[in-house]
Amino acid sequence: MSTVVVDELGARLKTYEGRAAAVAGSGKDPVNEPMIRHWCEAMGDTSPAYAGPDAVAPPTMLQAWTMGGLSGHTGRTGAYDELFDLLDAAGCTSVVATDCEQEYLRPLRPGDEVTFDAVIESVSDRKTTKLGTGYFVTTRMDVRVGPDLVGTHRFRILKYAPARRKEEGKGEGKGTRARRPRPVVNRDNAGFWEGVERRQLLIQRCTDCGTLRHPWLPGCNACGGLDWDTVEASGEGTVHSYVVMHHPPFPAFDPPYAVGLIELAEGVRIVSNVVGVPFDKVRIGLPVRLEFRRYDEPQGPGDEDGPLVLPVFRVQEGRVQEGREGGVG
Q: Is the pLDDT at 321 greater than 70, yes or no?
């Protein structure tokens, strides 16, 4: 005799598919040159297409023109909040963004005023992941200028109930420490992580124009070239910006700790931990030096995850006073 498990929560969540999350929302600002400049500086994108009298906005800024900030949008409906309330009440109190997809139909230019509609496109069946059990929720936003559809943005999150940590006795009865999240390795970044395993920090270099880039991408954002090789970073850098993480707590980490945007001597930037000084001594402009650390040593037979090697940046001894304050979150 078979047993049919009915997911009553999932059935209720499915009723939200197709419901509007925002109707006739308006961007708070027209497409404008200062935001384009700030975006390009943050991304290190020097393409001439994004400057000058004929400038267009970088396509990946599509969502930026629709963001409501802390005050939100007048076009927002209550459907998304109702959906989240149902999930929270069922214990799915944690959320993680999993991926987004964008489709671009025409470039946005300074002066364009965007409007948008958003819909809850789909809610998955109940899924169990390493993080916990919950539901994937996908929202689709259609972005327009006047009557013309200029782009579509799909954003997917996992709303889940956190999995309980396994507390298996080891040695003198102590529980095992939570593992650090493993990086998502794919065909575009596999070479980077292979280099890290060898204690090398590799930077992609376009073989057409010589532009260095990080993080790793399938194509050059300066000339569009698809061919590349790598150069090894010297390991010297400075703290370009940073935040101090206090919340939310995560079992594998001990807040507060500093996360820095490190500008390497080669001119590209990488996000990593800043070590060697207390979190409240980290400053913009501090000289740092690359080192590699091993985390999560095997706990014994049957341990599924091997050790994890990560690049971190140590503040050079005696150089703490060289930076300037700012960037603390």
A: no
Residue 242's Cβ-side half-sphere holds a number of Cα atoms within 13 Å equal to 31
d(CA 160, CA 162): 6
Res. 241 pLDDT band, cuts 50 70 90: very high
Query: In this structure, what token pair is assigned to residue 154?
Result: 């799909």
Asked whether residue 277 carries a pLDDT value surpassing 90, the answer given is yes
Residue 191's closest CA among 168, 225, 215, 226? 215
- Read off the pLDDT band of 319 (50, 70, 90): low
Work out the average pLDDT over 16-26: 94
Show Cβ contacts of residue 147 under 8 Å, excluding neighbours closer than 6 positions.
Answer: none
Domains in the chain, CATH or no CATH each: 11-162 (3.10.129.10), 190-322 (no CATH)
If residue 205 lies in a helix (H) or strand (E), which one and from where to where?
Answer: strand 202-206
Asked if residues 220 and 213 have their Cβ atoms less than 8 Å apart, the reply is yes
Q: Which two tokens stand for residue 84?
A: 């989240």
